[in-house]
Design a protein that fits this description.
Distance between the termini: 39 Å
CATH architecture of the largest domain: 3-Layer(aba) Sandwich
Shape: globular
Strand content: 5-15%
Helix content: 40-55%
CATH topology of the largest domain: Rossmann fold
CATH class of the largest domain: Alpha Beta
Largest sheet: 6 strands, parallel
Structural class: alpha/beta
Number of strands: 14
Number of helices: 12
Radius of gyration: 19 Å
């Protein structure tokens, strides 16, 4: 990767991924692609080039790829799970029609492509504990359906046209930088904000509901490490299970209370979020990622909690 385009660079993952890529590859070599109305701000805007890139417009993608001589595209354009369920047609248009445009441009201009999948690509009939890399995927949400299609379409372009497509199945991602934006796992971000603000947290996910989670630094490193991996080692491409930690609301609450003893949590379960959470795995088996490209997360629940509380305390002063 020499010249990189991040589509969705002002989003929840994209804003932090763009800055991490600039740190590793040089500011001028990473283009922040955004849609009108979601312009880069602050350091994201000032540190490197940016361009309007609507994923539903193939000609627009191609123009930017040609102008900046792009050879790798991180395609992060998508609606998050809860939002996608309320806007299924738009979720498909962005997630799948948009991906088709990206893959066509990549085929014409020999670009590698990273498009993340998710634990949402699994469904109720999937084994929920240590979910295998290769298993049944029958999601019942538009978010999940689009992610399964993302995996299949990316594999199709690799097998038929030789496009270097790669992907991971992200679990819930927890960040101290970017606020949550409509995901089922967002409670695990909101809870830290409540703790730092001295507020009681009202949890929308029921006690005993386990979901895989990951701290943002590990998520960013996973995406980049996979794109840097030796292709001859890759048996799987779209998409790798990656895992870091699995917990339910009670466990994250107790981890916080070690450092904030006065912190309190109650429950007010959101039926839609709970239905989606129940269909997702409790934990993922990421053996293939560890064997094929040396995946190894740095954070667990306790170390992440220390870092989250420290960073948010400084941020919210």
């Amino acid at each position: 990767m020499k010249h990189i385009l991040v589509i969705g660079a002002t989003g929840q993952i994209g804003s932090e991924l763009t800055m991490e890529l600039r740190k590793r590859y040089g500011n001028s070599n990473v283009v922040a692609g955004y849609i009108s109305g979601a312009e880069p701000q602050g350091e994201l805007k000032e540190s490197g080039p940016s361009a309007i890139v609507d994923v539903t417009n193939g000609a627009m993608i191609e123009a930017v790829v040609k102008e900046y001589q792009i050879d790798a595209i991180y395609n992060l354009a998508a609606l998050l799970s809860v939002v996608a369920e309320s806007k299924p047609m738009l979720a498909w248009k962005i997630g799948i029609d948009g991906l088709w445009n990206v893959l066509e441009v990549a085929r014409e201009h020999q670009c590698a492509v990273f498009t993340p999948s998710s634990i949402g690509s699994f469904g109720e009939s999937t084994p929920h504990v240590q979910t295998p890399q290769d298993t049944i995927q029958r999601p019942r949400t538009m978010y999940g359906i689009s992610k399964v299609t993302t995996e299949l379409l990316s594999d199709y372009y690799y097998n038929k046209y030789g496009v270097d497509t790669r992907s991971v199945r992200f679990p819930g991602i927890i960040s101290n930088v970017t606020p949550p934006g409509g995901g089922t796992t967002d409670y695990a971000v909101d809870i830290y904000y409540s703790a730092v603000k001295g507020e009681k947290f009202v949890c929308p996910i029921a006690k005993g509901t386990f979901m895989d989670m990951m701290y943002m630094p590990d998520a960013l490193n996973g995406a980049i490490s996979l794109m840097e991996a030796d292709p001859s080692r890759l048996v799987h491409r779209n998409a790798f299970n990656i895992a870091s930690m699995s917990f339910d609301p009670e466990m994250i609450c107790k981890a916080i209370q070690i450092h904030v003893p006065s912190f309190e949590m109650t429950y007010e379960v959101d039926p839609l979020k709970q239905r989606i959470a129940n269909s997702w795995p409790d934990s993922l088996d990421d053996t293939c990622a560890r064997e094929e490209w040396d995946w190894n997360p740095a954070f667990n629940l306790n170390t992440m909690t220390v870092d989250m509380l420290e960073k948010l305390s400084a941020k919210l002063k």
